[in-house]
Write a structure and sequence with these properties.
This protein has 198 residues and is mainly alpha-helical. It contains 10 helices and 4 strands. Mean pLDDT is 92; it is low at 1-11.
Length: 198
């Protein structure tokens, strides 16, 4: 655990060990990862980026996130849901993103499924947060090695997403997604973010 000085803070604070690689990763940890997210477009964006991460490091995706935003129209649900084969072929030639046909097609298909959920539940956010009674699942791990890659919540959500027809979703991907959007608080107990996120 590295001690850091957070902007605006007078005392040294600690962050999760995985976030120590570089300034970009530190900024992501400090300002985005694990903060409860309720905006449907941003939830869809994060799910899509996590799907694209499969088999790769998060650093790879983080380095390309601006390219992803540009390529996928800022992950506007209606626009992405309407992408056709011509758009898929265009995306497959874009060096700024992960050029994987299955992942690109899954992103388009999943946008359509998010819109279906919105029609039924009002918000994709409400659908997701309802699985844990609209509360943050706060774990209490003291070391990064204790953090699991799946749990009952990710298993349950994955099963339901597959029932609805989502593609390229597995419990490991969904667990990482739930951590990132704050439904699960997996900041270790010594991290300055742990107590801040309720």
């Amino acid at each position: 655990m590295t001690k850091i000085k957070v902007l605006g803070g007078d005392q040294l604070k600690q962050r999760c060990s995985w976030a120590q690689e570089n300034e970009k990763m530190k900024l992501y940890h400090d300002t985005i990862w694990g903060i409860p997210l309720y905006d449907d477009q941003r939830l869809f964006r994060k799910l899509s980026l996590d799907i694209n991460q499969a088999g790769l490091s998060w650093q790879t995706i983080l380095n390309k996130e601006d390219h992803f935003d540009e390529a996928f129209d800022e992950f506007n649900l209606k626009k992405v849901a309407a992408y056709d084969e011509k758009k898929v072929e265009e995306l497959l030639t874009n060096p700024g993103i992960i050029r994987n046909r299955r992942k690109i097609e899954a992103t388009i298909h999943n946008a359509q499924k998010v819109i279906e959920i919105q029609k039924e539940f009002g918000l994709f956010s409400d659908y997701l947060w309802a699985f844990n009674q609209h509360k943050v699942l706060k774990n209490a791990y003291t070391d990064q090695t204790e953090v699991p890659t799946t749990n009952d919540l990710s298993d349950t959500i994955t099963k339901d997403l597959k029932r609805i027809g989502f593609k390229f979703v597995g419990s490991t991907i969904i667990y990482a997604f739930l951590e990132a959007v704050g439904i699960i608080n997996d900041h270790v107990t010594t991290c300055f973010r742990y107590e801040e996120i309720q």
